[in-house]
Sequence to fold (73 residues):
Amino acid sequence: MSTYITKLFDRLDRICFARYGNSSNGIVEWVIEQNPGIELYGIVLPLGITINLPDAPKKLDAPPVLKQIFLWT
Fold:
């Protein structure tokens, strides 16, 4: 586990991308769960907030895949 102290104009999705290599597949939501109350700061985080960044989980639930629909055949 590592910690990150926010800098000016930091956003959680950018922090997750830098740490884990992506910001999709629920990784940002997972980091929010690991840091209760961080969602109260909004999109742009204030300076000096400490964020816990644990090791990435082995697998996060993938978003549902929609069945392909053909409008004209």
